[in-house]
Amino acid sequence: xxxxxxxxxxxxxxxxxxxxxxxxFKKTVIFIPKHSPHVGAIxxxxxxxxxxxxxxxxxxxxLPTSEATSATPIGWxxxxxxxxGYVLHEPLGNxxxxxxxxxxxxxxxxxxxxxxxxxxxxxxxxxxxxxxxxATWSAGQLEEEIREGAWxxxxxxxxxxxxxxxxxxxxxxxxxxxxxxxxxxxTDSPFATNLAGHA
Length: 199
Known about the structure:
Elements: E1 12-16, E2 29-36, E3 40-45, E4 49-53, H1 54-61, E5 73-76, E6 80-89, E7 100-103, E8 108-110, H2 113-121, E9 128-138, H3 141-147, E10 151-155, H4 158-162, H5 166-176, H6 181-184
Parallel strand pairs: 5-9
Antiparallel strand pairs: 1-2, 1-10, 2-3, 3-9, 4-5, 6-8, 6-9, 7-8
Helix pairs in contact: 1-2
């Protein structure tokens, strides 16, 4: 039975409307690991570069790193909780992490140091994406933004997060969702809105 506190956008992608003007969220793809109509939502931007590398993170956490992973870039996950790291990764059926906040057959989101250490040492999941910070919505806020056309909801696709380069994740997510960006930019489009996403 589905937990009644788990909202329908949990595990989904939010793709920014092509008309969104808020520079923080323009042309972003956001994965939603947590949504509740009674509490709100947490989202992780998966296509925006950050300023840190794995070496920087490991130095801050006093963790060892390997030459193979030290230069791995860390993404910008959103404007909130700027000191918190999130690891989106493929699940490893034979291994659990200390703190995971979302898991399905394709994508898991973990926030504990053990997975950072495992990745740094080369013993973690092969496919992963790390980000610092997140976006948050209060109760009912995300639903309102979607109704207003600020976001396009779609099924989350692991290949967008783990296989696509940052610069093509937005266009690929739109294409895989069956959408044409040029048509969405039409003034007749229901997504023609200047409403910005909220942090």
